[in-house]
Amino acid sequence: MDGVAISPQKTINEPYKGGPVMANKLTYTVFQTNQGWMGLLASQAGVVAATLPQTTRRQAIDLLGEKAKQANFSPDELNDITQRFQDYYSGKKTLFPDALDFSGATGFQKQVWQAAQQIPHGETRSYGWLAKQIGKPKAARAVGLALGKNPFLVIVPCHRVIAGDGTLGGFGCGLPAKQKLLKLEKTKK
Q: What is the mean pLDDT of the segment spanning 161-178?
């Protein structure tokens, strides 16, 4: 696959294919899963954004934001991750080891998102647990705010983070979407 780095070791600050990363070259795709239309946006450094399934193709594109207007439509470059999302929404246990383009993130957000990626499928952890994982045990509320800005939906499984009392807490896409994702992952084989 050419163009999008899939290695989890690549970040926006590392060289890509022997030269500096050109983060301004963006590609996107929109594709169907059995749950609806999804959008993916990527730079040469990795995934920039992923949407949850939407009712229409247009909704998925719109959720990718302003950057999608500057991107080239290129489904072939994103075919591998597209297939894994289709598997995920078909109920298969799926891993997303994809490189992420953290260029728009703060250092704190990057720490939180990387720690959230360590939460196994079908399991949940609390905001407090995540705060401890990044060495900031009193930052549970800030962790929640960082998760609310997560553009890498499902790849960075912020839906697996719940309140310390076992309630769902929040979710930028709404609690019904969080419940649906958690239920989907609990039924995976």
A: 90
More confident residue, 86 or 17: 86
Q: What CATH number is associated with residue 31?
A: 3.30.160.70
Q: Give mean pLDDT, residues 21-37.
A: 85
Token pair in block for residue 153: 């939906």
Estimate the crossing angle of helix 140-148 against helix 107-116, to 10 degrees.
90
Residues with catalytic function: 158
Residue matched to tokens 């990718």: 64
Q: Any alpha helices (H) in the chain, and if so which ranges?
A: 57-63, 79-89, 107-116, 127-133, 140-148, 175-186
111 in the same domain as 88: no
Its pTM stands at 0.84
User: Structural domain tally of the chain?
Assistant: 2
C-alpha closest to that of 78 among 96, 63, 58, 52: 96
CA distance 78 to 53: 16
3 secondary structure, DSSP code? S
Instruction: Read off φ and ψ for residue 125, nearest 5 degrees.
Output: -140, 160
- Using one digit for the tens of pLDDT, what is the confidence trace for 44-99? 999 999 999 999 999 999 999 999 999 999 989 999 999 999 999 999 999 999 99
Q: Which domain range does residue 31 map to?
A: 1-104
Residue type, position 99, single letter: A
